[in-house]
Amino acid sequence: MEERLKRHEIREGAFLILYQLLFGTSLEEIDELNAEAFDMAKNEETNEIVNGVLEHDAELVEIIGKYSKTRSAARIAKVNLVILKIAVFEMKYCDRVPNAVAINEAVELAKKYSQKSDSSFINGILSSYMRELDGK
Fold this sequence. Notes:
mainly alpha; N-utilizing Substance Protein B Homolog, Chain A; 71% helix; globular
């Protein structure tokens, strides 16, 4: 019986896939690499995030750019941009994921994969976006 992945593992898997796609790696190669290196098989929830981010990419970048006070989306480090895209996608399109959870998970991914100070940058952008979604 297949063990169900935790939501954090699903996000991390989606992050790794989306980040690798930025560098021209094919989905087939990514699946193989992830299965070997991380013992991680893509599942439906990971696919939902990856496909959703790819489908809504331009819109997600526009939202991120709107709330980034210090730099344009094009100047945001790729690792941070992928983390932000996942969180904004979940906040906008995944009703079952509370906004605060999406933000917290993004901050945790940033702490693991990015510069220490970047977690505050990511938190700021996502918190501003959450205020808009909440109508405040």
